[in-house]
């Protein structure tokens, strides 16, 4: 299977963002089955968080956003990991930042609601981020079988919490996806280091797709989408601009790394799973 990541500069127009995704999917060669990852907030980004809540409310009855993403997966015959979209939660004033996986038939295979919300101070034009104002945190982890391979799901700020990645690995993940909208400041400081660390310590493929550029509300995102091997090597990357990158998933290479250095067997904490509140 081939692993792919699409880098976007999403705006507040769902139609524009769908068109950008389709343009990248159309460029893929269909030589083998592909898993394609989209960034966080792939269909709406650069507007007010309250606008995301409004979009989640509009979409509640029709599930149009998921429907359109499923159709893209079917049209281009890919497993599509749709970075994240806003989904209205059981608390009517909040949405979940949710990732969904679609099969080449357009069927929804699974999903994940972002657990760790970005409530931080950053030295950029925004200064402060308060994701939990309108977003509700998820309460479960998710591993989805894609073409017979276990894929663990995370979103952006989750990258800073190695316990989550360890649990995904303990539940069989061999690939972990990281759709993101890292800020330019935090991305320059930590993005690559964290991605390589998560790949190395868990001996998994990491597929990371980012938002990039300056968005309508002035927010700047880092981009630098990349695919990393279980040994921590950057197999391919796209620093700036829109585009798609791909690298082959090689089960034998993953097995080789895990057999040579069996950290999962050596781990003294492997049966002590964390719980989230």
Give a written overview of the molecule.
The chain is α/β, with parallel strands linked by helices and 277 residues long. It is 28% helix and 30% strand. It is built from 7 helices and 16 strands. It has a 6-stranded mixed beta sheet with strand order 5-4-3-2-1-16. Strands 8-9-10-11-14-15 form a 6-stranded mixed beta sheet, with helices on one face. The protein has a two-stranded antiparallel sheet with strand order 6-7. A hairpin with a 5-residue loop joins strand 4 and strand 5. It is globular. The N and C termini lie far apart (36 Å). Keywords: Hydrolase. Pfam families: CN_hydrolase.
User: Which residues form runs of ≥5 with pLDDT under 50?
Assistant: none
Major sheet: arrangement of strands: 5-4-3-2-1-16
Which class in CATH terms?
Answer: Alpha Beta
What is the CATH-assigned architecture?
4-Layer Sandwich
What shape does the CA trace take?
Answer: globular
Number of strands: 16
In terms of DSSP E residues, the strand content is: 25-35%
Radius of gyration: 17 Å
Number of helices: 7
How do the helices and strands follow one another from N- to C-terminus? EHEHHEEEEEEEHEHEEEEEEHH
Helix content range: 25-40%
Question: Do you know the CATH topology?
Answer: Nitrilase/N-carbamoyl-D-aminoacid amidohydrolase
Domain CN hydrolase: 1-251
Family: Belongs to the carbon-nitrogen hydrolase superfamily. NIT1/NIT2 family.
Pfam family, one: CN_hydrolase
GO molecular function: hydrolase activity, acting on carbon-nitrogen (but not peptide) bonds, in linear amides
